[in-house]
Amino acid sequence: MSKRKLLIISFSNLKSDPRVKRQIHYFKDFYDITTVGLADSEIENVQHIDVFTPFNKMNFIIPLPKLLLGMFESYYWNLEEIKLTLEKITGKQFDFILANDSDALPVALKIKGTAKVIFDAHEYSPEENNDSLRWRVLFKKYKTNLIRKYAQKADFMLTVCDGIAKKYNSEFGLNPMVLTNAADYFEKTNLMKIGSKINMIHHGLALPQRKIENMIEMMDFVDERFELDLMLVFRKQEYKKELEQLIGTKKNVRLIPPVSSDEIVPFISHYDMGIYILEPTNLNNHFALPNKLFEFIQARLAIAIGPSPEMAKIVQANQLGIVAEDFKVETMATALNKMTKESIEAFKLNSDKAAKILNAEENMKRLHIEIERLLN
User: Fold this and answer.
1) Do the domains spanning 5-179+360-375 and 198-355 agree at the CATH topology level?
2) Neighbours of 188 (CB within 10 A)
């Protein structure tokens, strides 16, 4: 019996997009998968349709007046990746389509034929970069229009956390299922005792709005037990230089080269603690429940975070670490300084228990049930 056909659309680099990679890895054993994206996931037995076009500044700028004039449909359907998707998918039939992010949804609905469409909204796209004036002027109404016009037409919808699900409901009357960014299960048998130094790690994309500098400044207030490694991916070299200058001659902070997404959990599992102070500079930052939190858990780390409500809920419910009272660097430093070797080891043991439940396979099983319900 031939497998049902699944099309996964994500206008991202599928080799480094963790949420989409987890979809592909899990479902390839059950369905015949084709992906559409800006780079091949390079996962075996998955057909890929590439829609990448090199960035051209003029091609980006010339259509922008359409956004100011409210010509959202014309703007969308003339995007190169959308035109290429329509061109390369025409005539192909699928049983269901998994559209990742709001940009993938209209084209998924247009090409669906008899297929069911699952919309994975990820985060809250109408306010994804609301801390940027340029984004608010150009893209806020456009992204809002995509959700208002198309989200109700999907057969099923997902998002990453409770707070964002409630926002979609209050603003648009949508009822998405919550599917977190839980990482793949990692088998770790040696939980590692704490030594004389407490080694902390923060990893991920270094965006100025995430204010990585706060964690660097925090290291001026912690006691001599603590050391921090920052394993960052930079989009802007200016920001990298800014952080390097801030680190300067500090002996308790290092900037280290990133590893591939598949290597993150094994690599960080040699640390004691994962840390993330994320100021709520926009709605998605306020409700952030990022990949890195679940990677900390799979790496069996103790966790230190600011009072971000969705992260705090996970950390507190599973007793994984500390949640600072506010986002001030001195507050986090004070909380860290109160930690003992015994408390950190206890948090790491709790991460070991949580890792068996809060993982990608458990998430994907839930999504699989919903997909089969739609198809049957």
Assistant:
1) yes
2) 17
- The per-residue pLDDT for 192 is 74
Enumerate the domain spans of the chain.
5-179+360-375, 198-355
Element (H, E) at 376: none
The number of residues in the chain equals 376
Q: Per-residue pLDDT tens for 224-243?
A: 999 999 999 999 999 999 99
pLDDT for residue 191: 75
Distance separating alpha carbons of residues 173 and 168, to the nearest angstrom: 7
Tokens 């608010």 label which residue? 136
Contact 83, 103 (CB under 8 A): no
Per DSSP, the residues of 81-137 read HHHHHHHHHTT---SEEEEESGGGHHHHHHH-TT-EEEEE--S-GGGTTTT-HHHHH
Q: 313: closest CA among 353, 342, 305, 349?
A: 305
Spatial distance between the Cα atoms of 123 and 310, rounded to a whole number of angstroms: 13
Query: What does the pLDDT read at residue 189?
Result: 77
Write the DSSP symbol of residue 240. Answer: H
- Is residue 255 classed exposed, middle or buried when 0-12, 13-18 and 19+ CB atoms within 10 A define those classes? middle
Return the H-helix or E-strand segment holding 205.
strand 198-206
Q: How many other C-beta atoms are found inside a 10 Å radius of the C-beta of residue 173?
A: 10
Specify the CATH number for 5-179+360-375; select among 3.40.50.720, 3.40.50.2000, 2.60.120.10, 3.90.79.10.
3.40.50.2000
- pLDDT < 50 regions, the chain: none
**What is the per-residue pLDDT for 376?**
82
pLDDT tens track for 286-318: 999 999 999 999 999 999 999 999 999 999 999
What sign for the dihedral angle of Cα 62, 64, 67, 72?
A: positive
Query: How high is the pLDDT of residue 1?
Result: 66
CATH topology of domain 198-355: Rossmann fold (3.40.50)
Task: Provide the 3-class DSSP secondary structure of residue 324.
Answer: coil
d(CA 249, CA 247): 6
Which structure tokens are listed for 156? 């099923």
User: For residue 48, which amino acid is it?
Assistant: H
Nearest to 126 by CA among 310, 282, 8: 282
| Alpha-carbon span 90 to 4, nearest angstrom | 18
Q: Residue 316 has what pLDDT?
A: 98
